[in-house]
Amino acid sequence: MYRGWTGLTSVEQALLAGELVLLLGGFAYAAGADLRSREVSDRLWQLLGIAGLLLGVPLVAPGGALPTVLWLVVAGLALQHMFAWDDFLGDRLERYADLVEGVAYLGVILFVLVAAVRLGIGPDTVPLAVLALLVTVLFARALFELGVLYGGADAKAIIIAGLLVPLLPFALLPQTAAEDLLLSVVPFAITVLVNAALVSVAIPIGIAVRNLARGEFEFPRGFSGYTIPVRELPDRFVWLKDPMTAEGREEAEAETSEEDRELRVRQAEDLRAKGVDRVWVTPQIPFLVLLAVGAVAAVLAGNLILDLLAAL
Are 189 and 206 in a shared domain? Predict the structure, then answer.
């Protein structure tokens, strides 16, 4: 049944408020770190994940032992993604890490499914929060394995959103009855991801406005990039587009921010040697930034796509 903020007990309000503060604060910090250095410490995800597991216990514990055990099991599956536990297996056993994780996934899924089929879904059997978290973990892992989420930090952020706030069945701003119903069953992390994807549509528009204001707009690349002086290339997180250097044509990929900067230093030196003063680049916008914006939008307005459809 749908319950807004006022329908929660004082304890539930306090716990949910704490989870939302941790989520939004953690995502804001991660987005800032990713913008500055393209590096986000695993310690952040570990701390947020542990907090999510612990804060979730008093929310499901009133239902009894089974909901509590289910929450701990599924939250443990989510939390293991934040730790390099396979390092402790040693050289001989490290090759079995994927097998161990696969067995853990299968065991947790079967445990939850059997409990849901035999006992049903509800606060004293299989809580919706447990199902929402499990769906979030599976969804994030699938997107990562399929290459839709390029960075591991992006997948971890989605899982952390599910750990801290499995479901948020209401938004702070007024919603339609249909939107409230959907929010009550769709995992919060998926709403965040949908919002992030929608927000990304604004990026080409913003780039085009910037180019128009500077009189540098060219179709179609004026929607995806802009020009900067070659001397600024090493200090910008961008991809060089035109003129392309030999390394750029080979699509050299940098795995770390240091390697990325070294690549741009070499590109700048090559361009200056050719007498090039200005180049077209595409900005490297971390997806974590979009997820942070998507999380804020999800808390305030729920699913932005539904909001747009409702406004039509």
Answer: no
CB 192 within 8 A of CB 298: yes
Does residue 260 sit in the same domain as residue 300? no
Is 166 buried (19+), middle (13-18) or exposed (0-12) by CB count in 10 A? buried
Q: Is the pTM of this model over 0.85?
A: yes
Are 230 and 275 found together in one domain? yes
The β-bridge partners of 242 are 280
* Domain tally, the chain: 2
Q: Are residues 130 and 229 in the same domain?
A: no
Buried b (16+ CB within 10 A) or exposed e, 128-149: bbbbbbbbbbebbbebbeeeeb
**Greatest mean pLDDT range, 47-61, 90-104, 168-182:** 47-61
CB-based burial, 251-285: b 16+ in 10 Å, e otherwise: eeeeeeeeebbebbeebbebbeeeeeeebbbeeee
Range of the domain at 223: 202-283
Asked whether residue 121 falls in the same domain as residue 155, the answer is yes
Could you tell me if 191 and 207 lie in one domain? no
pLDDT, tens only, 77-110: 999 999 988 877 777 777 788 889 999 999 999 9
pLDDT 10s digits, 104-127:
999 999 999 999 999 999 999 999
